[in-house]
Amino acid sequence: MSSLRPQAQRSPLTLLRVWIGFQPNQGLRTVITYLLMGVLAVSTVGPFIIMLSVSLTQNIRFLLFPIDLIPNPITLENFQLLFDRTLALRWTYNSFYVALVSTLGGVFTSTMAGYAFARGDFIGRNVLFYMFVGILIMPETALIIPQYIMLSDLGLVNSYTALIGPWFASIFGTFLMRQQFLSIPRDYDDAARIDGANIFDTWLRVLMPQLVPAMVTLGILRFMGNWNSFLYPLIVTTKAEMRTLPVGLGTVARSGGDAGLDMAGAVLGFVPTFVVFLLGQRYIIQGVSLSGLKG
Predict the structure, then answer these.
(1) Quick check: helix, strand or coil at residue 38?
(2) Helix (H), strand (E) at residue 188
(3) What digits encode the pLDDT tens for the residues 149-192?
(4) What is the CATH architecture of 86-255?
(5) Most-buried pick from 162, 200, 279, 280 (CB within 10 A)?
(6) Distance, CA of 99 to CA of 225 (rounded, Å)
(7) What angle in degrees, to the nearest 10, is found between the helix axes of 171-182 and 125-134?
(8) 32-70 burial string, b = 16+ CB within 10 Å, else e?
(9) Rounded distance, CA 79 to CA 86, Å?
(10) Residue 104: pLDDT band by 50, 70, 90 thresholds?
C-alpha cells in the first residue's frame, strides 16, 4: 500500500507530464497522426466544399438537409443571377486592377527601400529605419481617417488613386527585403564593383535574382491582402461602380440576397487568391527554407 500512495497523490500537472511523455509504438503513432491530419483536413476544406456545393445548387434546394456535396443537377444559375443583378464583373475588375498594381508597386518600392537601408551609408539610416518600422505598431484602422481626409481634400475619393496610393509602398515589405539583403554577403557587391557595376546594376543584376523567392512571397501576401481588403475600400468609395469585390458582395449580402447568390460571390472572391497561391507556393516554400538556412 505504501508503494501505491505516491502514485495516488500525483498532482494533475504530474499526470499531464506523464501523458505528454507517453511514447506509443510506431504503428499507433502513425494511426494517431493520420487521424489528426484527417480531422484537420476535413475541418479546413469542408467549409469550402460546402460553399462550392451551395453555389452550384438550384435555388431553395440548398435548404434541404443534409446538403448534397455533389449537387444534382449542377447549375450555374446562382452565378448568372450574380452577374445579372449586381456589378460583379466591374467589382472583379476593380479588385484585380487594384490588387495587381498595388502588389507590383509595393514589391518594387520595398526592394528599393530595403536595398537602401541594407546597403546604403547615410546619416541617420538606422534611426530612420526604426522610426519607419515603428509605424507597424499602429493599427491600420487608426490611419484610415487621416488618409480619407487627405484624399478628400485632394479630390481623389472614388478613384483608383485612392484605392492604390496608400498601398503602393509597404513597411512590412521594406523590413522583409532589408533582412533579405542583409543575408546576402557583401562579397557580391565588391565583386560587382570590381567589374565596373554601379549601384543600380548591382541592385538589379546581382542581388535581385537572389531575392526571387522572397519577392514572390511578398507579392502573394500583398495580392491576397489587397484583394481581401474590405474596410479601407468601403471608406474611400461611395459609388457602386468603384467598389471592390469584397465591398460589393458585402452590400449584396446586406440587401438580403439568398444563400446561393452569396456563395456564388464567395467562390468568385476565393478562386483568384487560391490560384495565385497555387502558382507561387513553391516560391514560398523555397523562401522559407532559404530564410531558415540563412537565419
Answers:
(1) helix
(2) helix 187-194
(3) 998 899 889 999 999 988 888 888 999 899 889 988 989 888 88
(4) Orthogonal Bundle (1.10)
(5) 162
(6) 8
(7) 140
(8) eeeeeeeeeeeeeeeeeeebbbbbbbeeeebeeeeeeee
(9) 10
(10) very high
User: Which residue has cell 449586381?
Assistant: 86
pLDDT tens for 223-238 read 999 999 999 999 999 8
Grid coordinates in use for 244?
A: 471592390
Domain with CATH 1.10.3720.10 in the chain: 86-255
**Using an 8 Å Cβ cutoff, are 68 and 53 in contact?**
yes
In angstroms, the CA 75 to CA 58 distance is: 6
Residue carrying the nine cell digits 476593380: 94
Residue with cell 540563412: 294
**136 burial via Cβ count (<10 Å: 0-12, 13-18, 19+):** exposed
- Go through the chain and tell me how many residues it has: 295
For residues 229 and 163, give the distance between their C-alpha atoms in angstroms, rounded to a whole number: 10
Q: E strands along the chain, which residues?
A: none
Rounded to whole angstroms, how far apart are CA atoms 5 and 281?
56
Q: Is the dihedral of CA 268, 269, 274, 275 positive or negative?
A: positive
Three-class SS state of 73: coil
CB 246 within 8 Å of CB 272: no
In the prediction, which pLDDT does 24 show?
56
> How many Cα atoms sit within 13 Å of 187 on the Cβ side?
1
Radius of gyration of the chain (CA): 26
Nearest to 101 by CA among 184, 187, 159, 30: 159
* Separation in Å, CA 183 to CA 18, 121, 186, 204: 42, 17, 9, 17
- Digit-coded pLDDT (tens) for 35-83: 888 888 888 888 888 888 888 887 766 566 667 777 777 888 889 888 8
